[in-house]
Amino acid sequence: MKWIHVKALFDSEDISLAEELVSDIFFSMGLKGVVCQVPLEAPPEGFGSDALPIPDKTWVSGYIPDIDSSLEVLDDIKKKAGELASLDIKVSIETHIVDQEDWAESWKQFFHVSRITERMVIKPAWKEFVPNPDDVVIEIDPGMAFGTGTHPTTSMCIALIEKYLEAGNNFLDVGTGSGILMIAASKLGASRIVGLDTDEVAVQVAKDNLIKNNIPVDLFYVETGTLDQYIARNDVQFDLLAANIIAEVLISIMPDIKKIVKTEGTIILSGIIKEREAVMIQSLISGGFSISEVRTDGEWLAITAQKMN
Question: What is the pTM of this model?
Answer without folding.
Answer: 0.76
